[in-house]
Amino acid sequence: MSFKSLAMATVAALAIAAPALAEGIMVKDPYARVSAKMSKSGAAFMEIMNHGDADDQLIEARSDVAKRVELHTHKENADGVMQMLHVEEGFAIPAHGAHMLQRGGDHVMFMGLNQPLEHGDVVSVTLVFEKAGEVVVEIPVDLERKPKHGMKMMKHDHGNMNKQTN
Ligand SMILES: [Cu+2]
User: Fold this and answer.
1) Would you write out the chain's pLDDT as a tens digit for each of its 166 residues?
2) What is the DSSP string of 44-86?
3) How far is the centre of ligand 1, averaged over its atoms, from the C-alpha of 85 (Å)?
4) Can you list the alpha helix ranges (DSSP code H) found in the chain?
5) CA 61 to ligand 1 center in whole angstroms
């Protein structure tokens, strides 16, 4: 690898690692995943922080990676089965607060992937906020990431698999 391409690679890596910033909105630790290889759908998770003085709202997500990108949440139905729901109004990001997009909860849904997502790929997603406007986030595909919640339980009971499919 030449010095120039090495420098370019470093710049690219920094661009991915640096949090997206616009009007006080900051995105921390984003990652995307698919439940299985060649999956037709996938999801992205991250922490969205609002360092501004006004409440904001994530109202839309866009990406070329899939035919449809929606803001989803998980909800348990009457039969105790977790279901995904499209959240039309989006997610509130309180002033000086944060909103977590995480497995088993709110997430950005990719429906009808235009290409299979592989570990290490980077997906460009535009988050649209009511006040902050558009924030482009480069999201690495991480297929090895374990869900944060329920980790204590999982530690001593590997048979206790998560119900969710994301
Ligand atoms: Cu979903």
Assistant:
1) 555 555 555 555 555 545 554 458 999 999 999 988 889 999 999 999 999 999 999 999 999 999 999 999 999 889 999 899 999 999 999 999 999 999 999 999 999 999 999 999 999 999 999 999 999 999 999 999 987 754 444 334 343 344 444 4
2) EEEEEEE-SSS-EEEEEEE-TTEEEEEEEEEEE-TTS-EEEEE
3) 7
4) 3-17, 151-156
5) 13
- What does the alpha-carbon distance between residue 95 and residue 52 come to, in Å, rounded to a whole number? 6
Residue 91 structure tokens: 């997610």
- Residues within 5 Å of ion ligand 1, judged at the Cβ atom: 72, 84, 109
How many angstroms separate the alpha carbon of residue 124 from the centre of ligand 1? 18
Of the candidates 22, 20, 42, 40, the one whose C-alpha atom is nearest the C-alpha of residue 30 is 20
Half-sphere exposure of 93 (CA within 13 A, CB side): 31
Give me ligand 1 centre to Cα 72, in Å.
5
Give me the phi and psi of 45, to 5 degrees please. -130, 150
